[in-house]
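Reading group handout, session on sequence-to-structure problems. Before we discuss, look at one worked example. The prompt was deliberately terse, the way you'd type it at a terminal:

> structure DNA recombination-mediator protein A

The input record follows.
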Amino acid sequence: MSQPVDILPPDTLAQELAAIQQTGSKRIAILGSRHVPLTHQQLIEMMSYALVLGGNRLMTSGATGTNAAAIKGAMRADPNLLTVILPQSLERQPRESQEQLRQVIHLVQCPENDRLSLAEASAICNRDIISRCQQLICFAFHDSETLLKTCQEAEEQRKLVTLFYFD
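And the output record:
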């Protein structure tokens, strides 16, 4: 039985080929769900470690789960190549995240979003992150509305998007 083949528009194909062939460092964002099994967190940590060892600049947010794993890996490789952008002020982050976040050299807080719900602040934060990156790697569930919308916005900005589903 044959499988249908998705044919990419020429500009998308050219963009993806250029991204694959790029040998210099990139600005890569890793975002994802807070609800991640430990084994997946370890894989994300290893991926961020390898990306930073390769000279890439890594960006993420400050939540537990995916983002905490990305921070941990990047901090082991080279803390200077990590930027963490918080959706709100540090004090509004989960207690289990605050200790890790205090060790981040390039930490951007957004206290002006403290009055917003976490979902609203996260959407704004994710937009900021994708505006700064060349590539987005996202780990989500099929019902992760904010993350899926972020991936869609990144694609609209012609960023290279790699989306992994947990379910």
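Points for discussion. First: The mean pLDDT is 89. Second: The first strand starts at residue 27 and ends at 32.
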